[in-house]
From TrEMBL:
Disulfide bonds join 170-174. The keyword Transmembrane applies. One of its GO terms (biological process) is mitochondrial respiratory chain complex IV assembly. It comes from Dissoconium aciculare CBS 342.82. Pfam families: SCO1-SenC. This is SCO1 protein. Coiled coil: none annotated. One of its GO terms (cellular component) is mitochondrial inner membrane. The chain crosses the membrane at residues 94-115. Its main location: mitochondrion.
Length: 306
């Protein structure tokens, strides 16, 4: 009996030990499995991180960034010689300096030829206006200026003379043209100095335009304009010489009303007393002054060349 009880006890003890061993082994396996899984996860994460860094590193090495290719991080190219540096700015076989000089020279020659062409044209016109033998415009005359002094064609020599025919009782045209004449005088003086141009105003109405009347009338326009008058025959003679229409009646009674008609031109005479050019009413003050200034410049150039 005792032997059977002892044997049963040993059997139960062996079973309990086996069950404990089995449970312990299962627990150990679960612990090992969990530890192994955690370690594997860590290793996998580390490998992915390392692979990403390697890829970025390879990408950076194989494909340089855009900022690195633009130049700030690269040294600028230095030219080996001065000639090589100059060649950067050349246009084919010519440099830009040569092209600029060519344009300047071409423009200067163009302006010079245009000036010479205009000058020769003015010279031909002046020679044609002189005619053959007797001048076409101008000639001998005798008048009295507004200071009471004698004045003839001889007084025209030595300077350019601007001659205008009109009368003091003219309502509109003569005042307008005298204003233009005053502007021309100032522009010529500004260009060539004083004393180059002699402006004179010849009356076509000698019966009413006495020297005193002329002087008082002309001072309202310009102090350099010199008025001229004379007898009816003297005025008719100078109008005929300058091809000016003259319609003033000869025998005029005091207080009698009559019409005075005349040509509307400025006559430019050169320093030799010869006719140069007629300036019409269609000319502006500036355009008329330019005509005079061009002729004065031609004359001075002719003197310098002689």
């Amino acid at each position: 009996m005792a032997t059977q009880l002892s044997s049963s006890m040993r059997t139960m003890s062996s079973q309990i030990c086996r069950q404990c061993a089995t449970a312990t082994a299962a627990t150990a396996r679960r612990t090992f499995t969990s530890t192994t899984a955690a370690q594997s996860s860590k290793n996998a994460l580390r490998m992915r991180s390392n692979n990403g860094s390697s890829i970025l590193s390879r990408t950076s090495t194989q494909q340089p960034s855009q900022s690195a290719t633009r130049g700030p991080l690269q040294p600028r190219r230095t030219y080996k010689t001065v000639e090589e540096a100059k060649s950067k700015y050349r246009l084919g076989p010519f440099s830009w300096q040569a092209g600029l000089l060519f344009l300047i020279a071409g423009g200067g020659l163009t302006l010079y030829f245009r000036y010479e062409k205009a000058r020769m044209s003015r010279a031909r016109i002046a020679e044609a206006n002189k005619g053959i033998g007797k001048p076409l415009v101008g000639g001998s005359f005798h008048l009295t200026d507004h200071n009471g002094a004698d004045f003839s064609e001889a007084n025209l020599k030595g300077k350019y003379t601007l001659v205008y025919f009109g009368f003091t009782h003219c309502p509109d045209i003569c005042p307008e043209e005298l204003d233009k004449m005053a502007g021309m005088i100032d522009l010529v003086r500004e260009k060539h100095g004083a004393g180059v141009l002699k402006p004179i105003f010849i009356s076509c109405d000698p019966a009413r335009d006495t020297p005193e009347v002329m002087k008082s009338y002309l001072k309202e326009f310009h102090e350099e304009i010199l008025g001229m008058t004379g007898t009816w025959d003297e005025v008719k003679e100078v109008c005929k010489a300058y091809r000016v229409y003259f319609s003033t009646p000869k025998d005029v009674k005091p207080g009698q009303d009559y019409l005075v008609d005349h040509s509307i031109y400025f006559y430019l005479m050169d320093p030799e007393g010869d006719f140069v050019e007629a300036i019409g009413r269609n000319f502006t003050t500036e355009a008329a002054a330019k005509v005079i200034n061009d002729h004065v410049a031609d004359w001075r150039g002719k003197i310098d060349r002689s």
